[in-house]
Amino acid sequence: MHRLLAIALVVACGGTQATPDRPAPGSAAAGAASAAAADDAAGEGPVADVDVPIEPVALQAWLADGGYKAWPHESGKHESAGPHGDAVLTFLAPALVASLRRGKGHAHPKGVAAVKELYEKGKMSGWAVSVKLADDSADGRNWYWYEVFSTARDARATYQGVGFEVCRDCHSERGGNDHVQSPFPLP
Ligand code: HEC
Known about the structure:
By secondary structure, the protein is an alpha+beta fold. It is 31% helix and 18% strand.
């Protein structure tokens, strides 16, 4: 298990080097965060509660297969209050719903996740994903962040990585509920 996880993390880190026309992630910081997450996971077993892959190729396939479709979700698409496309529809893993029910001021446990469907001109055009990798959010550094602007099974993420700066900056600066921005209960 440890070896598998290490391989997954190496692939995830390799992925963050990607597309030269996009802002490069702080790869040194991302690497350190991945190592911390690997240690954490090796000590306590893999990320619990939720079955969301944190390796980009596997995650894209899981998304394309609708792995999150049975989760509680918003009742309809709405305009994004952030930079997430024309319209969005958020799904929350059951463990995240349970944690949000406790109200503000609690850190969500390791393993919670959210998936947001992105829409352009009424058509689903991609996903944004967040997965918490440790009980302490560490300002978003202990979350895995992923955003892709295609629904093709083999599409590559535009942004992804443990603690990916662009995502964690906004999600931690805006406050929300331990980095979760969507209103709760879900509209
Ligand atoms: C400028 C601010 C901003 C940035 C940058 C940002 N987000 Fe968000 N994000 C939001 C807001 C606001 C919401 C609430 C839903 C909405 O209105 O789109 C949200 C919602 C989400 C959700 C649904 C769960 C939740 O927290 O409500 C996910 C998953 C998500 N973002 C992932 C990402 C990823 C991955 C990135 C980086 C690629 C990212 N976000 C970058 C503002 C931001």
